[in-house]
Automatic annotation (TrEMBL):
One of its GO terms (biological process) is NAD+ biosynthetic process. Its cofactor is FAD. This is L-aspartate oxidase. It comes from Corynebacterium diphtheriae. GO terms for molecular function: L-aspartate oxidase activity.
Length: 158
């Protein structure tokens, strides 16, 4: 069930298996993952689930597509990031294409043209082409999260 509640109210008593703080991309994707596994999450936000940094993001998501390579992407990220953990960078770079595919399968309207943005040696940035990539991604994730509203094995509350 998805609804907004006044946490100051004593009328709201509910049990959940997991509490997620934040309704941006990470919070919504975590909630979806938990709900898919039958775990009942609740997302707590400072204001509403629509007000998050993800919705304001204008750039895009970087992922390798041939003839680009994972190593090239990792090296660009490490060079630009200075203090990044090399093992974590390589793990994220390896997973990025699957994330793009997943978002696309859920309806993310990526532009068919990859872009080259700061720090990248080649065009590998997926965006919506209109400067509102974050808003589109947030809408896609929120729509996906709301699909768990009627599932009997798990309840997702936002």
């Amino acid at each position: 069930m998805i609804f907004e509640v006044d946490l100051g109210s004593t009328d709201y008593i509910e049990e959940h298996d997991a509490v997620i703080v934040g309704g941006g991309a990470a919070g919504l994707r975590s909630a979806i993952s938990l709900a898919e596994r039958g775990i009942s999450p609740i997302i707590l936000t400072k204001t509403t689930v629509d007000e998050c940094a993800t919705a304001w993001a204008q750039g895009g998501l970087a992922a390798v597509e041939p003839p680009d390579s994972f190593e090239s992407h990792a090296q660009d990220t490490l060079k630009a990031g200075h203090y990044c953990d090399p093992l974590m960078v390589r793990e994220i770079v390896q997973q990025a294409p699957a994330v793009i595919d997943e978002l696309r399968s859920w309806g993310m309207p990526f532009s068919p043209v990859l872009h080259r943005e700061g720090g990248h040696a080649v065009a590998r940035v997926y965006n919506t082409g209109d400067g509102a990539t974050g808003a589109a991604m947030h809408a896609v994730l929120l729509t996906r999260a709301k699909k768990w509203e009627s599932k009997s094995q798990s309840t997702l509350e936002l």
